[in-house]
Design brief:
Layout: E1 2-6, E2 9-13, H1 18-22, E3 63-66, E4 72-75, E5 106-107, E6 129-133, E7 142-145, E8 170-173, E9 176-181, E10 203-207, E11 218-222, E12 230-242, H2 244-247, E13 257-273, E14 285-290, E15 296-299, E16 304-313, E17 316-326, E18 333-339, E19 346-351, E20 360-369, E21 380-386, E22 392-395, E23 398-402, E24 418-429, E25 432-443
Parallel strand pairs: 3-6, 4-7, 5-9, 6-10, 10-13, 13-17
Antiparallel strand pairs: 1-2, 8-9, 11-14, 12-13, 14-15, 16-17, 18-19, 19-23, 20-21, 20-24, 22-23, 24-25
Length: 446
């Protein structure tokens, strides 16, 4: 310490320590945020890291065998999932550098939050067993273990870290008392979820000496490839029964519900395109699928609406497309005219896509108007519901609605009345439908 004496004035110079420099408020500090300011230069604790999830167990390998009475032992068990890792603990806030009796309250930093435990891995499924036989009793010689693997345990969540502790709880400065509040413990991390156990393997039996050929129940085909082609499909039909464990050797572990082969369905599909517009106007993939009853159906892309007929000849299905539109063409109506008054009030729409000769149209309306003598633009609902078919007229691609013949008080159909109309149009074609909303506002003219 150095002391300089200048006449009667003594000046004491005290060197600043690192702790003193570290706790000084920043230049932007103001009294308005003083109570929330924490002076620790390393005030942000490390949060605990989440534990990694466990790995899923492997599925048991499916097996196909031919039963002939010879003893067979099979292990098709699914593998166990592994445990999730524990989350790590949040950081303890020790050696906190807090201001020494500042002119403001102190909220000490909280400890770090603990990390979440990792989820346990799911157990693998037991493998399926397919058995071909000619004598059902021969299955008694087959012993199979096909349990699902056990799910792994979830990891434990990490513990929250300890917050900073105040060296002193309160102090006085300039005739005012200030306080220091300890930091809280961080939140404990949640424990991870235990993994689910894998499912038992399943038995499939076929009364045959030859393996079934592969089935092709579904095909996905680009629209451009549908013309002038034949597509062959097939499907295996199975019957679900109970009692698998009774069919096999005693002690076998497998799902008691099993599948028995009934028959194989085969058929072909062809598409005939007879719509006015070419198939090349449309894009996307169609799905051709054989149903369990042998019927073959085609599902066109969502954006392609078709109308056609199906012809079934023994094992061949022919689908003829007679009309087709794009989905976007169903919702291109707009208001064309609002005319008349009283019982002659009409609203006209026009179909810009010009497809209304093919599309079925239903109209829901909410008719709102102002009060004629209210002097304020306040709209109230006067009618809400479907426009009856007899009040909706179509002329080619133009629709006219007789609004004046709806059950609306005549006071709200007169010239000078301001009107808001909300239309919800349901447009249907070929078993598909879409809605279009139109909102219009205007005034009834003379």
């Amino acid at each position: 310490m150095k002391v300089s004496v200048l006449g009667k004035l003594s000046l004491v110079l005290i060197p600043l320590t690192l702790a003193t420099a570290a706790v000084s408020p920043p230049p932007s500090f103001s009294q308005s945020n003083a109570s929330n300011w924490v002076a620790n230069v390393n005030q942000t604790p490390r949060q605990g890291t989440d534990g990694r999830p466990g790995r899923e167990g492997r599925d048991g390998t499916p097996q196909t065998i031919f039963a002939n009475g010879t003893a067979v032992n099979l292990d098709l068990s699914g593998g166990d999932g592994t445990n999730g890792e524990d989350g790590s603990d949040g950081e303890n806030m020790r050696n906190c550098l807090l201001p020494d009796r500042p002119s403001f309250d102190i909220n000490a930093p909280n400890g770090g939050n603990g990390g979440r435990g990792g989820d346990g891995g799911r157990g693998g499924n037991g493998g399926d067993l397919t058995v071909y036989y000619t004598n059902l009793d021969d299955l008694q010689a087959i012993s199979v273990r096909s349990p699902g693997g056990r799910g792994g345990l979830g990891g434990r969540g990490g513990r929250g870290g300890e917050g900073c502790r105040c060296d002193r709880r309160s102090w006085e400065r300039n005739d005012r008392r200030y306080h220091c509040n300890d930091g809280s413990y961080g939140s404990d991390g949640a424990d991870g979820r235990d993994g689910d156990d894998g499912s038992l393997g399943r038995l499939w039996i076929v009364n045959s000496t030859e393996e079934l050929p592969p089935e092709v129940p579904t095909l996905t085909v680009p629209l451009a490839d549908l013309r002038d082609r034949t597509f062959d499909l097939s499907r295996h039909i199975w019957e679900t029964k109970l009692g698998a464990t009774a069919l096999l050797a005693s002690g076998s572990i497998i799902d008691d519900e099993y599948n028995e082969f009934v028959k194989r369905l085969e058929g072909s599909f062809q598409l005939a395109w007879q719509a006015d517009r070419p198939l090349t106007d449309f894009t996307g993939d169609a799905t051709i699928e054989m149903q369990n009853d042998g019927r073959i159906e085609i599902e066109f892309p969502e954006d392609v609406w078709v109308e056609g007929r199906t012809q079934q000849d023994t094992d061949r299905t022919l689908f003829t497309v007679e009309n087709a539109i794009a989905k976007r063409e169903a919702t291109q109506l707009q208001v064309a005219e609002f005319s008349g008054n009283g019982t002659d009030l009409q609203l006209a729409l026009v179909d810009l896509a010009q497809k209304s000769d093919l599309i079925d149209t239903k109209v829901q309306i909410e008719y709102r108007s102002t009060d004629r003598d209210s002097g304020r633009e306040r709209y109230r609902t006067r009618y809400e519901g479907e426009i009856p078919a007899e009040l909706l007229h179509r002329n080619y691609n133009r629709f006219v609605m007789d609004l004046g013949k709806l059950p609306i008080d005549s006071r709200f159909l007169q010239p000078g009345i301001s009107v808001e109309i909300e239309l919800t149009l349901t447009r249907s074609f070929g078993g598909r439908s879409a809605q279009q909303e139109i909102n219009w506002q205007g005034e009834i003219k003379r």
